[in-house]
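User: For a benchmark we're assembling, each entry needs the component sequences followed by a predicted structure for the full assembly. Here are entry 17's components. Please fill in the structure.
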Amino acid sequence: MNLFTSSIIMTLLMLTMPIILTSASTHKNKSYPQYVKTTVSYAFMISTIPMVMFLYSGQEVIISNWHWMTIQTLKLTLSFKLDYFSVIFMPVALFVTWSIMEFSIWYMHTDLNINHFFKYLLMFLITMMILVTANNLLQLFIGWEGVGIMSFLLIGWWYGRADANTAALQAVLYNRIGDVGFIMAMAWFLLNTNAWDFQQIFAIEHENLNIPLAGLLLAATGKSAQFGLHPWLPSAMEGPTPVSALLHSSTMVVAGVFLLIRFYPLMEHNKTIQTATLCLGAMTTLFTAACALTQNDIKKIIAFSTSSQLGLMIVTIGINQPHLAFLHICTHAFFKAMLFMCSGSIIHSLNDEQDIRKMGGLFKALPLTTTALIIGVLALTGMPFLTGFYSKDLIIETANTSYTNAWALLTTLVATSMTAAYSTRIVFFVLLGQPRFNPVIIINENNPLLINSIKRLLLGSIFAGYLIFHNITPTTIPQMTMPCYLKMMALAVTMLGFILALELNSTTQTLKLDYPQNPFKFSIQLGYFPIIIHRLLPMMSLSMSQKMASMLLDMTWLENVLPKSISYFQMKSSITVSNQKGLIKLYFLSFMITLILSFFVLNFHE
Amino acid sequence: MPVVYVNIFLAFIVSLVGLLIYRSHLMSSLLCLEGMMLSLFVMLTVTVLNNHFTLANMAPIILLVFAACEAALGLSLLVMVSNTYGTDYVQNLNLLQC
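Assistant: Structure for entry 17:
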């Protein structure tokens, strides 16, 4: 027991060391990035001790350290819950972060503020660890907000670029909308269960949990970019590639899913929220996979792929399989981070070119990156016995054989085939064919930092699924028997996506120019969702305020009602009434003739 | 009736005819208007002085004041027309537009 708790405390404290030592100005040192990287690697190695202890003896620990304050009847403490989820997620997250930090030493090498960047990455990692190991809702909320803030700071890392600032602001705003749901859930739990500790919440039998669970679902929608609050994730690709790899593929965006997984004892018995979760996840995965089919920026395609996989995780929670969703979180971290790192290697080698229409023929030029990209793509689509297979195939099988919403199931299958389609598109445009980039660049991936980090995640992508799956305690009994066509469904749908995409991509080499049709326009403009939501609402409120303030009050009441209306009315009526034509001489002549005639008539009448 | 009234009355008629019949310049009708006012002034003064109509001694001066006002008004209209068209030809006024 002592080894468990002391390892965890040492892991968490070690991570905070480089931040605390800021006062000793180690952060101005030139080798601060290496220091941070080795700190994270040591933290990873130490955190594998509790994981192994848990896997082989089933020991769960709750560390309750410090009583902060008691607000009337609510006791706020600093406590860490180290159960199945956090003890397995911590080593995985630390491993991925270690590789990403090594990669970003290479990627951000020419940046003058690289020490600052590493400090931000480390602060993000600490808040993510706080989120994952929290035992009460307050600590989770601290971690939740912390990852949101660090995401904002890291997305806007190149703050001189207006698009980056917009994207960072977008991330914060969408996360805030989700936070409303989180706070609502916290308030409900405070009012009805008088505690924010998980043990007490799970021990009480509640009658109707719709409100807090809906609040938690909203929070997950905001943080994990589900449909309705999703545009921030593709926009967040404005940040540097290590940020995309760490935050927006493996760790931060799974925080929403992690929250729902934490609350699985409450969600087990609530069919309404499960159905809502299922439909939301199915909608997300289909929509974002459809949007990924026509994007031209390699990072945006991978971002939409992340969003689609997050939708798949939410679907898994919706069919009441939280442990499978957690398994998918862990396996997804490996290959998604690796995909982002490969794209970073490609972007850096091609001199900051991110458009796949300007890449090509990298198959022979970047061998290790090519290998890693293809293996990552295969793992993503669920190639048998790679990492993704163990979680994704199980999810599809369980969804196929469970008593669930048929529409959600169908959309999930369609989204799975679309996954294969856009992955083929990436491979086809980036790696195959003739080069379409500038000839005068130096393509070099010969740096040990890059090679080692990609190799590590490559080994993880191939073996981690097997290792994790065969060592964890079985929690829910997987469905062992099912008809053959259902068993083959995931594989068949994926192969269909592959073949279709390959055919389409090959035939595009020989087509004439065609103007985009409506489904294409729908896909490439992200379903018109960002355009409508980001522009329509502000435009309506601003134009309404302009009309009310300046046009209604100033122009109408003060200007138009009496003065201008009088002059306008007079003019219009005089135009209507007058029928003169301005023949003045004629009028004067007739006047004179009248005078003379009257003179004669009145004088010589007799 | 003294003959002088006939003379002044004739002057008035001549000015009136000149006001109503003119060729092209608006200025000439304004001048004839002044002529009308002048003859009226003289007639009024002669009448008041000959008949010792003491209470009406102010009348010619008031007439003069009003004549001056209307002359100013007429001139301002002439200047406005002349500003728009450059000349004061009366055939320019055939287009009424509000």
